[in-house]
Amino acid sequence: MPLSRMRKDSLDAMSQQEHDFRDRIRTSFGRQGAMALIGAELTRIQHGTVEIELSNRPELMQQHGFLHAGIIAAALDSACTYAAYTMIDPDVSILTIEFKVNLMSPGKGDRFLFRGEITKPGSNIIVADGRAYVIGDGPAKLIASMTGTKMALRGREDIQE
User: Fold this and answer.
1) What is the topology classification, in CATH, of domain 3-153?
2) How far, in Å, CA of 76 to CA of 82, rounded?
3) Which of 7, 33, 45, 48 is least surrounded, with the fewest CB atoms within 10 Å of its CB?
4) Torsional sign, CA 26, 32, 33, 34
5) Residue ranges of the domains in the chain?
6) In whole angstroms, how far apart are CA 97 and each of 46, 56, 127, 135, 148?
């Protein structure tokens, strides 16, 4: 087979894998009750990176009018976990086994962005970093960061996507 044909076949296979993880993540996210409850939207999926956005709503704020730390942690965890899903085979599931959140600035704004990115891919353990931002007309403002550890699960019929 000519080298150019091998490259095209390889690119086609990579494109199909990318399409598959995007569909898988969209479907899984659509079944996530917690993200639906807070009104989160999946806005970007690419190899190693996932973004989730959220509009400000009074019921998501804590008593001082800032986005609640629990909401920040949940959205960052989901973004990091779905970023891990871009790195694994279709028959593997992911569970969070640890994370740490640093709250750097009050979450005050009309819209929030949560980005999860893979720091260290692996076959069993994947490390991801997340960043939360207030977004609006001006530059995005960093409000929190997360480092999370994810575990790959194989052969667990009791765990569904």
Assistant:
1) Thiol Ester Dehydrase; Chain A (3.10.129)
2) 10
3) 33
4) negative
5) 3-153
6) 23, 29, 10, 29, 8
